[in-house]
């Protein structure tokens, strides 16, 4: 019968055979060398006791061998001394000895506990009587040999005892090793408090119960030994579904089985255990029961669940971050500034454009801090923080569409006009959770508006002037012709010419306006090309200006008598008119104005060029790059010399529409040269007599 809480060597060995992963702490223990050590055999000692040295000599010669040590004693007393220190396989004891004879010596040997079982063979020559032999056996002889001895008989008898002694020694050593092994494994099993390790018979009746089982299930060994496992540890559900018994059946079939089962402790606490069951077998291999190792894995399951939960949360967070990054990237590429605030007006997000417009992305924790943007009305009054569109959205749920205001850029310290749309953000219940403001920098629109206003004022002025002139001249003529005296024909013609010239200028201005409007609407102007002489046109335009340019000396230079091409005459007339009128207008102190016409070869193409040079105010260097922009006027002209800023831009379009260019070189205070370059379209004047005749 197995002791109640310790383990038999067989159980211990079975546990040791179980898979290491089931018993990790056991597996981690080093196996003691004693468990695997080979049994060693010491030489066997034989004690020979005889008072006759020659007898001892004869015995030694007869019995000596490699596996034994022959120990001699000359008397019973000496023999007893040897027996105190050494173990002997057999004692050969002479009966007749002085002092202590063989029988007395044997009696003393038998009295001692340690030597009680040492076999004694009496040797005697003298006594042959049967009573003598009987006495010998009575004091514990195992054999009685009469001298002279038969060598073979004595040798074989002694050998029997030597072998017996060897075997006994071997068994003793093995028993000691087994005891040591058992104790070692018992200590391991008892020390495995993390694991409940139990043994049952085939019916599931507990035979053994370690300290781990005590700790895990709460029962002492005394309480469970002899009890049926299914009566105490298993849940009613597992018993009902058969899961508990199935585990043992599988173990019987396969030798072992594992499962995660819910178990019940003595206090009724339920917890999950990982259970490994191995079949115990007897020496013939027949199953005799089970060894079960179980461990509470509640904490492990919980940790796994927490890890899984953490993984889900991490994935969710990563997903949310990716979505936020995507949204952020989308918001950052939008051309509008976007600010998102929470319900308190704390700003949660500025996109890249907002940062660009505002020049800052300050930490703002509430509506009161919205003053940091320096918002102003166009009349210069500051916004109260709660008046701002975003604040109104957050505080009152107000939606704002297209409100214009000024914000201060923190980097440039300039006020930037912005157009703001704003709306509240609401949750599913409709409660305000924040607000969003979308705004765009309308500086360019505002500038254009200003330029347009200036243009309208200038254009009305420009159109009104010639009209007033026409009307005045017409009234003078009417008055003169209404008189009874005969009309002054030359001055009447002069007056009508003047009206004609001014109305031509007016028509030119209106056409220019139409072209500008056309270009503004993205529609190209349709050129009306015809063969023409550019030199003749230049002369005509200059002639028209002479009466209005008294302080200027206008010259036309050309190294050839004509410059024919196929161009839009009306529009080129407008370009030349523009360039010459600008040259006059921007040389308020007079000076030379020179038109140089030439024919040039460039990149294998023939070009007709007209350079209009003046000695006027020139154009500041920093304004030069923008001088051909619509409505743009140089800083030294604004407010001093009237204009609309559309002439040069329209002229360049006309040049480009012809496949040509219009460029400028200028130096402020010294004068400007505008150069119109038109392709000749490989039209050789000499080859085109009809063009010549037309021009003529
Ligand atoms: P406007 O003459 O009506 O102002 P333009 O488009 O013809 O418009 O010219 C644009 C601007 O270019 C002018 O306002 C002026 O500042 C500058 N500019 C044009 N021609 C000259 C010139 N010959 N000398 C100096 N500045 C000129």
Commentary on this structure:
With 696 residues, the protein is an alpha+beta fold. It contains 22 helices and 22 strands. A five-stranded parallel sheet has the order 2-1-3-4-5, with helices on both faces. The protein has a five-stranded antiparallel sheet with strand order 7-6-10-9-8, sandwiched between helices. Strand 21 and strand 22 form a beta hairpin. Residues 1-6, 16-38 and 682-696 have low confidence and may be disordered. Bound molecules: adenosine-5'-diphosphate. The site of adenosine-5'-diphosphate has 21 residues, from helix 20 and helix 21.
In a few lines, what is going on in this structure?
This protein is α+β, with helices and mostly antiparallel strands and 696 residues long. Bound molecules: adenosine-5'-diphosphate.
The low-confidence parts are: 1-6, 16-38, 682-696
Q: Please state how the strands of the largest beta sheet are arranged side by side.
A: 2-1-3-4-5
Task: Output the structural class.
Answer: alpha+beta
Portion of residues in beta strands equals 15-25%
What are the distinct ligands in this entry?
adenosine-5'-diphosphate
What count of helical segments does DSSP give? 22
- How can the largest sheet be summarized? 5 strands, parallel
N-end to C-end Cα span: 144 Å
Count of beta strands: 22
